[in-house]
Amino acid sequence: AVVSTQSTGKTDELESTSRKALRRLFQAERSAENASPQAVAIRHKLIVGLVTQFGKEFRRAFIAFVLEDMRARSDIIIAWLYREYTIDQGYVWKGLTPENYGYDNCLQYILHGVFKKMEPGDRILSKVLLDCPE
């Protein structure tokens, strides 16, 4: 029983630390943009990695974040969809949390959110549909 408690404690600590890191990455948007294109790419890669690894809660926070300014964040939306697609296709190690929904559901969540928030004349839906995998 002690081993499972210690294991759970380490898992909780890892998730807590990862949640804090994800929040800081969300907040570092302007800093990365002002630094360089490489900083933006690294930030996107880190965010996408955390979201795909830790699943449900992270995914909800990510979707809320990108939909706040979906036009400016379309690149990270596409990066995330590609990551989910590669996991679904078996190109990437699948030892991720069981709460992962898979590419189809992720695409559905994004399209639903984009559709709800788009304004007349918006091209964001077209961009996502044309740039997403498959």
The geometry reads as globular
Total E-strand runs: 0
Instruction: Estimate what percentage of residues fall within beta strands.
Output: under 5%
User: What is the overall number of helices?
Assistant: 7
What's the N-to-C terminus distance? 46 Å
Low-confidence stretches: 1-5
Give the overall pLDDT as a whole number: 84
- Helical coverage, percent range: over 70%
Coarse structural class: mainly alpha
Radius of gyration: 16 Å
Report what the structure shows.
It is built from seven helices and no strands. The chain has helices at 2-27, 29-35, 37-54, 56-68, 74-88, 103-117, 124-131. The chain starts with a helix and ends with a helix.
Secondary-structure map with pairings?
Layout lengths: L1 H26 L1 H7 L1 H18 L1 H13 L5 H15 L14 H15 L6 H8 L3
Helix pairs in contact: 1-3, 2-3, 3-4, 3-5, 5-6
Brief summary:
This protein is an all-alpha fold and 134 residues long. It is built from seven helices and no strands. It is 76% helix and 0% strand.
List keywords for this structure.
single chain; 134 residues; mainly alpha; 0% strand; globular; disordered N terminus
